[in-house]
């Protein structure tokens, strides 16, 4: 019984890490990264479609993304979606492709990005702690209903705490890497 609770708790913590990875991808570093466009949806014949499903996204150099749609009629829609997004980049449309120039980040902007990363990391830590709380609550319920002994409950709670420490350590590592990436000139 406690094994199921442990597995569910670990799965919740894994999901928290996945969400953090997705959040970190959306944070702009000094480099052009095609994954930054993953969250941007374009209205394509009435269907919100990710850019990478309707165009080839290339990175000719570290500070440029080129978007070449397979259907040239959707260029304006892609351009409008990028402008409406929070990327903070002005696309350049030449009629057959869209260029996204990524200017080098200023020191001040880098610090803002690091703050944003820290906020995402804190959300990740909170999600991991919430998973711990839920797991511990299930253990307490089993103990209260006399389905497991107090010793088993204590051992299970210790295991959940070890899991929590491991996942929070992973969140901190991810934050450290992303901070270094953002602050790199």
From TrEMBL:
Under the cellular component aspect of Gene Ontology, which terms does the record hold? cytoplasm
Q: Does the keyword Transcription regulation apply?
A: no
Biological processes annotated in GO = translational termination
Keywords assigned by UniProt?
Answer: Coiled coil, Cytoplasm, Protein biosynthesis
Where, if anywhere, are coiled coils annotated? 139-166
The keyword Coiled coil appears for this protein: yes
Output the Gene3D superfamilies linked to this UniProt entry: 3.30.1360.40, Ribosome-recycling factor (1.10.132.20)
Instruction: Specify the Ribosome recycling factor domain's residue ranges.
Output: 20-183
Q: Please give the chief subcellular localization of this protein.
A: cytoplasm
Q: InterPro entries, per this entry?
A: Ribosome_recyc_fac (IPR002661), Ribosome_recyc_fac_dom (IPR023584), RRF_sf (IPR036191)
Localization annotation = Cytoplasm
State a single Gene Ontology molecular function: ribosomal large subunit binding
Q: What does this protein do?
A: Responsible for the release of ribosomes from messenger RNA at the termination of protein biosynthesis. May increase the efficiency of translation by recycling ribosomes from one round of translation to another.
What is the similarity comment for this entry?
Belongs to the RRF family.
| Protein name (database record) | Ribosome-recycling factor
